[in-house]
C-alpha cells in the first residue's frame, strides 16, 4: 500500500513539470503557426520563391511555393518546441540527437546569416557597378566601335557594352563569393572552391589580354582578307580558275568569288595565329597543340591545291591542242578527253602524295594504274597491229624474192679498163698494169669473191 501511495505521489510531484511542458508545447505551436503564416503572407507579396522553384523544377500544382516554405518553417520550429517539451519533462535522453542537431544549427546560424549578408551586399554592388559601366560605355560609343571591328556578328545580338558590364559584374562577384565561403567556415567544401576562384582571379589578366589578342586578330584578319581579295582579283585569279574549270566567278547566284574565298581563308589563318597566342596565355596547351598541327598542315594543303590547279590547267591546254590537231570531231573529242583525264589523274595522285595520306597505298595504286594502262596499251597495240605487221612482212619477203643476181661479164670489164687507161688523169695512178689486170681477170672465178656469190639467183 505504501508503495502504491509513493508511486502516485511521485506522479503528482511531476504534475507541475507536465503542465509546464504542455504550456510550452501549446505556446510553441501557436508561435510556429504565427511565424509560418507571416512567412506565407510575406512570400505572396514577392515572386522570389516562384522564380526559385521554377529554376529548381519543383512541381507547385498541388501546393504553392508559399505553402511549402511556410510548412518547412513550421516544422523546424516545432522540432525546437518538442526538444524544449521533452527537456521540461526531464526526458533529454530521448531527444539527445535532436538537441545536438539544433545546437549545431543554431551555432551555425551566425555564419549562414553573415554569408547571406555578404552575398546580398556584393550582389547589390555588382548590379550597380554593372549598370554604371554599361551606361558609360553606351554613351562613349562602344557600339559604333564594335560595328566597325565586326564584333556585332560574333556577339549575335549582345552589345559590347553589356558584355563588358557582365564581365565587371562577374569580377566583383568572385571575391564576394570567396568572402562568403570563408564566412561559412566549411573548410572541406570552401577550400577547393576558394582555390578555384583564386586561380580564376589570377588568370583574369591573361584572359583579358587573350581577348584583346583575339579581337586584334579578327580586325587584322578582316584587313588581310580585303587586301588578299583585291590583289587576287587584280591578278585575275577568278578568270584563271574559270579557264581551268574550277568555278565560274561570274556565275549567277554565287555568294563569293574565288578571290573572296581565298581572302576568307587568309583571314581564318590570321585569326588562328592570334588565337594560338591567346590560348598560350590562358594555358590551354592541348588546344594550342591541335591548332599548331592544323597550321603546320596548311602548307601541304596549299601545295596540293596548287598542283591540282596546274594539273587542270595543263589538262585543258592538252585537250585543246589535241582536238585542234585531229580533223575528225568525234576522234578529236575522244583523244582530247583521254589526254585530259590522264593528266588530271596524275595531278590527283601527286596532290594526294603531297598531303601524305597513306603514301604506300597511294604510290602502289598509282604504279598499278600506270602499269595497267601500259599493259592495256601494249596488248591493244599488239592485237590491233597484227595484220599491219603481217602485211609489211609479206611485202618485204616479196621484194626479196624478186631480187635477181647475174655473173659479171669479163669482156665488158676489160673494155672499161682500156678506156680508163687511154684517158689521162682518170684513175691511171692507182691502176695496176694491163698485164696484171688481164691476169687477174683471166683468173677471176665467179664462184669465189668477196661476197661469196653462189649460183645465179642465190645469196
From TrEMBL:
Record carries keyword Transmembrane: yes
Polar residues biased stretches: 420-439
Alphabetical UniProt keywords: Membrane, Transmembrane, Transmembrane helix
Region named Disordered: 399-459
Basic and acidic residues composition-biased segments: 399-419
The keyword Transmembrane helix is annotated on this UniProt entry: yes
Classification via Pfam families: MS_channel_1st_1
Transmembrane segment boundaries: 18-36, 72-92, 112-137, 158-180, 200-220, 261-282, 294-314, 334-352, 364-385
Gene Ontology molecular functions: mechanosensitive monoatomic ion channel activity
InterPro entries hit by this protein: MSC_TM_helix (IPR008910), MscS_archaea/bacteria_type (IPR045275)
Database matches in NCBIfam families: msc
Matching PANTHER family: SMALL-CONDUCTANCE MECHANOSENSITIVE CHANNEL (PTHR30221:SF1)
Name of the protein this chain belongs to: Mechanosensitive ion channel
Amino acid at each position: 500500500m505504501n508503495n502504491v501511495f509513493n508511486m502516485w505521489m511521485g506522479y503528482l510531484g511531476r504534475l507541475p513539470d507536465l503542465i509546464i511542458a504542455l504550456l510550452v508545447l501549446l505556446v510553441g505551436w501557436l508561435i510556429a503557426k504565427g511565424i509560418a503564416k507571416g512567412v506565407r503572407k510575406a512570400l505572396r507579396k514577392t515572386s522570389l520563391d516562384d522564380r526559385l522553384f521554377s529554376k529548381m523544377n519543383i512541381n507547385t500544382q498541388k501546393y504553392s511555393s508559399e505553402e511549402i516554405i511556410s510548412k518547412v518553417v513550421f516544422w523546424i520550429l516545432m522540432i525546437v518546441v518538442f526538444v524544449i517539451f521533452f527537456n521540461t519533462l526531464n526526458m533529454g535522453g530521448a531527444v539527445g540527437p535532436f538537441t545536438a542537431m539544433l545546437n549545431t544549427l543554431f551555432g551555425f546560424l551566425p555564419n549562414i546569416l553573415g554569408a547571406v549578408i555578404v552575398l546580398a551586399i556584393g550582389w547589390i554592388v555588382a548590379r550597380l557597378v554593372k549598370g554604371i559601366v554599361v551606361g558609360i560605355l553606351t554613351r562613349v560609343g562602344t557600339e559604333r566601335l564594335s560595328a566597325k571591328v565586326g564584333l556585332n556578328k560574333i556577339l549575335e545580338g549582345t552589345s559590347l557594352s553589356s558584355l563588358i558590364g557582365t564581365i565587371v559584374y562577374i569580377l566583383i562577384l568572385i571575391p564576394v563569393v570567396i568572402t562568403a565561403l570563408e564566412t561559412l567556415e566549411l573548410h572541406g567544401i570552401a577550400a577547393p572552391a576558394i582555390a578555384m576562384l583564386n586561380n580564376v582571379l589570377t588568370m583574369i589578366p591573361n584572359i583579358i589580354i587573350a581577348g584583346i589578342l583575339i579581337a586584334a586578330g579578327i580586325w587584322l584578319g578582316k584587313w588581310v582578307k580585303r587586301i588578299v581579295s583585291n590583289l587576287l582579283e587584280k591578278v585575275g585569279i577568278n578568270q584563271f580558275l574559270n579557264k581551268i574549270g574550277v568555278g565560274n566567278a561570274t556565275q549567277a547566284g554565287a555568294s563569293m568569288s574565288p578571290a573572296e574565298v581565298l581572302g576568307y581563308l587568309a583571314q581564318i589563318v590570321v585569326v588562328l595565329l592570334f588565337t594560338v597566342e591567346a590560348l598560350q596565355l590562358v594555358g590551354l596547351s592541348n588546344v594550342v597543340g591541335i591548332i599548331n598541327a592544323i597550321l603546320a598542315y596548311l602548307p601541304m594543303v596549299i601545295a596540293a591545291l596548287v598542283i591540282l590547279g596546274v594539273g587542270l590547267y595543263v589538262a585543258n591546254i592538252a585537250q585543246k591542242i589535241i582536238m585542234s590537231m585531229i580533223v575528225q570531231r568525234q576522234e578529236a573529242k575522244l583523244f582530247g578527253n583521254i589526254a585530259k583525264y590522264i593528266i588530271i589523274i596524275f595531278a590527283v595522285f601527286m596532290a594526294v602524295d603531297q598531303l601524305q595520306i597513306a603514301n604506300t597505298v597511294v604510290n602502289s595504286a598509282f604504279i598499278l594504274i600506270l602499269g595497267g594502262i601500259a599493259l592495256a596499251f601494249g596488248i591493244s597495240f599488239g592485237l590491233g597491229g597484227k595484220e599491219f605487221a603481217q602485211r609489211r612482212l609479206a611485202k618485204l619477203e616479196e621484194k626479196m624474192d624478186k631480187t635477181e643476181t647475174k655473173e659479171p661479164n669479163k669482156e665488158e670489164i676489160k673494155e672499161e679498163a682500156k678506156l680508163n687507161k687511154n684517158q689521162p688523169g682518170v684513175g691511171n695512178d692507182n691502176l695496176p698494169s694491163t698485164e696484171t689486170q688481164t691476169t687477174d681477170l683471166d683468173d677471176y672465178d665467179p664462184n669465189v669473191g668477196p661476197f661469196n656469190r653462189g649460183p645465179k639467183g642465190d645469196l
